[in-house]
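Please review the protein record below. Tell me whether the encoded fold seems credible here:
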Amino acid sequence: MAEEEDYMSDSFINVKEDIRPGLPMLRRIREAHQKEEKHREANLKNRQKSLKEEEKERRDSVLKSALGSENKGFALLQKMGYKSGQALGKSGSGIVEPIPLNIKTGRSGIGHETLIKRKAEEELENYRRKIHLRNQTEEKAADQFRLRLKSKKEELKLEGDLRRSQRACHQLDTQKDIQVPKEPWYWFMPEKEEQEDEEKEQEEDEYGDEELSVLEKLQILTQYLREEHRYCIWCGTAYEDEEDLSLNCPGPTSADHD
C-alpha cells in the first residue's frame, strides 16, 4: 500500500506561488474575453435567419444553377436546335448569358431611384454653375484690379512727365527773360502748389469750370516747348530750328519715342 502523503512535508509547505504583480488580473481578463467569444459564436450558431435572408439564399442558389430540360422555355429552345452555351438568334449574334435579375429590396415606388438620380444630377449641375459663376466673378474682379493698377501707373507717369516739362519750361523761359509764365501751371512752383489748388477749387465752385486733365496739360505744354523753344522733353534736346526738330525728333508724344 502506498505511503500516505504528508501534507506537512516540505513538498507542500515550500511550494512557491507566482506572486508577480498584475498576473491574476491579466488572467481574469483573458478568461473573460474567451468566454465572451464563445458566447458570441454560440449565438451566431443558434440565431434564426430572417425571412429576407432565407429568400436571398434560396434566390442565389437558384440563380447560380443553370437551366435544365425541366424548364419549359429551355426545353422549347432545345427542340429548335439550341445547345447550352450558344448565343441566341438564327445567326448566333444574340446574348449568351441571361439578362441579370435586378432585385428591388427597398420599399420605394417604381421610378423613385430615377428621381433620386435626376435630383443628384441637377444638384451637381447647379454646383458646377455656381463654381463657374464664382470663377467668372473672381476673374472679372482681377481684370478690373489690373486695369485700375495700370491706370494708376499711367497716371503717375503722366504726372512725372508733366512735372519734368514744367521744370524745363521754367528754365527755358527764364533763359529768354520771360518773367511770367504763359499760364500759371506752365511752371512747377512747389511752394505755390497748395495755394493754387485752393484757388482752383474756389474757381470751380464759382464758375463750375472743369480743370484740364494731366494729359491735356502735358500735351499743351509739350506743344508750347516745341514751338517756343524747339525743345522735346522726350529727346531731352533743344534743337536749332524747326527744320532740325522735324528731321531729328521722332514726334511730339512719348509713344513716338518708344
About this structure: DSSP finds eight helices and two strands in the chain. Residues 231 and 238 are 4 Å apart (CA to CA).
